[in-house]
Structure formats: C-alpha cells, structure tokens
Amino acid sequence: MQNFTFHNPTRILFGAGQIGGLSREIPQGARVLLTYGGGSIKANGVYDQVRRALEGFDIIEFGGIEPNPLFETLMKGVELARREEVDFLLAVGGGSVLDGTKFMAAAIPWQGGNEWDIVHRRMPPKTALPLGAVLTLPATGSESNSYAVITRAATKEKMSFGSPLLFPRFSVLDPETTFSLPSRQVANGVVDAFAHVAEQYLTYPAGAPLQDRFAEGILRTLVEEGPRTLAEPRDYDARANVMWCATAALNGFIGAGVPQDWATHAIGHELTALHGLDHAQTLAIILPNLLWVQRVPKREKLLQFAERVWDIREGTEGSRIEKGIIATRAFFEAMGSPTHLSAYAVGEDRFGEIVERLQARRALPLGERRDITEEKVLEILALAR
Ligand code: NZQ
Ligand code: ZN
C-alpha cells in the first residue's frame, strides 16, 4: 500500500428532516450567501425548507449557477458577496452549485490578481470563506471533498482544482430532496459515482484489499440500488443508498494508498467543454472503451472486478475481462445513459481537437501508469463512435 494522509473534515448530516438542523451548523450572526442553480430547489420545496431553517440569519441569495458552472457567472456572485460582506456560503443543489460555491469561497478573499488563475494555474488559495452544503443530486462527491470543476465560457476550458480549505464544513444529505430528480439526472449520478470508483479501483493491485472491498461494495450497491431508484422514485432506502454510495465514492476513503487513473474524466471533460454533454454522459461513453483499450495493463484488477462485482467466474481470462466490460456497458445503458458518441452527434472529425487540447495543457500521457498516449486516446474515441 502507498503512503497516505487521510483527513476528511466534512460533517455529514444524513437523513430525512436534517435540513431542519441547519441553524446549528452555521455560526450565529453570520451573513450567509445562499447559492443555488436554475430553480429546481424552488419547485421541490427544498428552498422553503432551507429558508425556514435559517430564520433569523441575514441571507443574501445568488441563484442561476448553471450545470458545468461558468467562471463568468460565478464572478458575479463573487462581486455580490464582496459588496454584501458575506462571511458564510451555503450551497443548495447538485455538484455544479457546490463546485461553483467552492470557487467563490476561494475567489471572494483572493488577492492574487486574476481569479481564473485559481483554476487555470491551480494557484493555491491562502484563505477561503467557510462553506456548507445541502446536496440535492447524489453524483459528484463534491459534498465531502475539496475539489471543484469550473468552466470558462470564453475559452471553453473545463478544469478541476482543489484545496484543503474547500472541504464543506458540513453537508446535509436528505434522500427525500432527490425524489424530484428527472431520470436523466438519476442515471448521471449513478454513472458518475460508478466511474469515480472505477478511476480509483480499476488500476493495478497495490496490496490494499480493504480499499478494494470497499470499492467493490460501492459498485455492487450501485448496481442493485440504481435501477430501483429509476423504477420507484420515492423509494427512500434506494435513494439513501445511492446517496451514500456517491459520497463514499469520492470522499478520499477508497482512494487512500492506491494508484488512480482519472483518464476517463480528463477525456470526458473535453467532451463536455466542446460538445456540451452532461459530465456523466461522457463517462458512460469513455469508461467501457478505455477499460477495453487498457485491458492488458489493467488485467489483474479487471479479472477481480469481473468476479467480485459481476460474478463472472467461468471462461478464459480474456473472456472474463470482456464480459465484465460488457456488463458495465449494459448497466449504463440500462440506467438510460447511452454509451456511444453517435447518440450525441459528435463525429470523428472532432477527435483530433480533443487530443490537441489535452496536449496543449500537457495532460498526456494519462492514466495510473502514464501510458494513455495520444494514440490510445484516439483509439478510445474511435471505439466510442
Ligand atoms: O440547476 P437546478 O435547477 O438546481 O437543476 C439541476 C441541474 O439542471 C438539476 N437538479 C439538481 N438537483 C435536483 C435537480 N432537479 C430536480 N430535483 C433535484 N433534487 O440537475 C441538473 C444537473 O445538476 P448538476 O449540479 O450540474 O449535476 P451534478 O451533480 O452531476 O454535477 C455535475 C458537475 O460536477 C462536476 C462535473 O464536471 C459537473 O460540472 N464534478 C465535480 C466533481 C467534484 N467536485 O469532485 C467530480 C466529478 O467528477 C465532476 O467532474
Ligand atoms: Zn465525475
């Protein structure tokens, strides 16, 4: 096992009714900036619950954070927060609202010049405003990690950054807030969480059986509970299990001490930036093809995955690996997430641009062994047609 430092300071308040306890989590007398997205929280009653729970606090609102949050939008929130001298940020929504709020937390007190440098040049913030979250879409793990992914419209760049200062102080995870999710977002959440586990588990053996078994437990739970949430949107237990899986998939726990890949995400972010696909839609397309192209270097873990996640024990090594990948693709499709680029009208003529952009940012080669070269990215994209 590799050396690691594990520290996850986010306090999780899990379960129905937990929004009611918000006021205990925010310092008395704080001036709170309540951030949200395009209005789903007003339609499903979450906004009203939050406002009720925060009676007596000074609340300033910043709505309109879009999916794949834009630097340009967020800077308006930064200016508002500076003007209003807010000292606590409360993000209410999905990963985009949480990520956007993390950026704002770093940008509001930033004195290092252009705020885009925090993302683009990964200049570490020296200080950040405290933030909390009410999560309404289980997917990204942003509710319990220190990362954010921000897009700049002007340059079509979608980039991740992080800082230990950006862990939410607390996150409220009430599965009932997810009852109103459209099926496309349910699928997105399950696929994203599945891919987060895959990025940290489907690499090479690192003598870390506990991390492996946690990872396999998350994957098996997603495979069981994901379809239940689609079939029965108000099944509380299914919602709760998917929600907890998504947090566990990217709160640092299963990734401690093991090699990590993240090539599927790197390629996927370019597809979102250039062609507007949802984050998880890109993962459903890239992951099965990347696993196929990388089936030799990932051989041992793919065999373990086939056996322990999909119960595939018969046949040659090659056929077990192939069946595990086919089962993964079929699961994404069954959740309603297409696994081919043709579903989104992204043609072959656009593949070169994706590779050029990865090259320009010196991101290649990718993968846990840095062996996913330009040629392999093109091969993965060609298989994904
Ligand atoms: O904007 P509103 O009106 O709130 O609607 C949202 C949005 O349209 C809607 N929604 C959210 N909760 C809802 C709901 N609709 C009905 N009922 C609810 N309870 O869902 C739509 C998508 O929301 P979004 O926040 O964009 O989705 P998600 O949580 O999948 O976040 C995706 C973003 O997270 C980034 C992605 O790149 C993308 O920008 N990621 C962040 C990561 C992190 N911080 O660690 C890691 C991930 O790999 C990912 O890259
Ligand atoms: Zn993701």
UniProtKB/TrEMBL annotation:
Residues 187-382 form the Fe-containing alcohol dehydrogenase-like C-terminal domain. InterPro entries: ADH_Fe/GldA, ADH_Fe_C, ADH_Fe_CS, BDH-like. The keyword Zinc-finger does not apply. Keywords: Oxidoreductase. Residues 9-175 form the Alcohol dehydrogenase iron-type/glycerol dehydrogenase GldA domain. GO terms for cellular component: cytosol. One of its GO terms (molecular function) is butanol dehydrogenase (NAD+) activity. PROSITE patterns: ADH_IRON_1 (PS00913), ADH_IRON_2 (PS00060). Pfam families: ADH_Fe_C (PF25137), Fe-ADH (PF00465). The keyword Signal does not apply. Belongs to the iron-containing alcohol dehydrogenase family. This is Alcohol dehydrogenase. It comes from Mesoterricola sediminis.
